[in-house]
User: What shape does this take?
Amino acid sequence: MKEKIRTLVLSLGADICGFAHIDRFDNAPKGFNPADIFPDCRSVIAFGIALPKGLAGINPRLVYGYFNSFTFPETDKIALQTAKRMEEDYPCTAVPVPCDSPYEYWDAENMEGRGLISMNHTAVAAGLGAIGKSSLLLNPRYGNMLTLGALLTDLDLPSDPVSENICKDNCRKCMDNCPVGAIENGRVNQKLCRNNTYGKTQRGFDTVDCNRCRTVCPMNYGDCKLSDSGIGSL
Assistant: This one.
């Protein structure tokens, strides 16, 4: 069953997919555990859509920003379609979770938002990678160029193996190259980051004016020589 679900997720457009049993979320902050959304949750399915590596080599203002945002509804569509197919094919309940917004938590003073669950930590629990010093997920094949999604289910599915950390111990490139010094020891000052990153053109189109933490990372697109099986523990 688990491998059939993984194959389904990949067939719908995801590039990677992994599984985490609910017991891997025992240390999630109160209010951000998958079971806080769906009390009967027994397993979480995490997946990711990779951006083309060409988007890491251009000015991010318009093209990168547009296609990065474009992957959000694409990711949510995969979660929705997977949930529907799972409920058709198995005796289960499945709950898709928005990959980005909407969310409830907002600290206006610090401009800090939190998703309904942490997609990065969910991906780690499902074996898709490890969190780098930039606070971005690093996957062995796709590096940090991923949009992450998830859905919750009452199916009792075993976890995938946890992935190794590919963030180099002595590397500080994301921290040293952040133009506003927003990154330190795996945490991001969202107020500094948001004010520096997001803007608008004179006509009102949204822009992304900085993605340095992604592009300077030596593992920003992972190692393309690795297997492309799609299994979380590449």
Summary: The longest helix spans residues 60-89. Residues 224-234 have pLDDT under 50 and may be disordered.
